[in-house]
Amino acid sequence: MDGQELKQDFFISHASQDKERYIESLAKELTARGVTYWLDSIEIPWGDKLALKINEGLRQSNYVLLCLSRNFLGRSWPEIEMNAALSMQTDLGQTKVLPLILDSREQILSWYPIIRGLVYREFDEGLSKIADELAKLASMQVIAPGYIHVTIESLHSGQLSNVVV
Description:
The chain is an alpha/beta fold. Helix content is 39%, strand content 21%. Strand 7 (149-153) and strand 8 form a beta hairpin.
């Protein structure tokens, strides 16, 4: 995009088996708070190039919300997203990865010991509380001088997106 950049607040990384139970309700709460996010079911149309779209989503998101569960364990795509996000965080030297443990905390922390070194949240703390904290974090993003931040809403899907011009 010439002179403008699409920037989502969060890239939601998750196992597809968790979409109905956890992710859809979280996405609804984020939308209600005006928070933007990249979610595969919205951003990747039928027949599109999966890896290209995921890379684009990771690049164009301020944070990666890493939704960890027993369904996440050992799944190739979610683990690829997690590895990329952790690498980006290391390269940038700033917080990029926000772990959210959906279930099976001890199993998750045993399988992914690197998560123990990060501050994480647990889904059972309450969906409203988590969405409020994410909205607060999103509102703290600083736009470089000379740029304008606009949030747009799709008339068709209701999906929100940030545009920085």
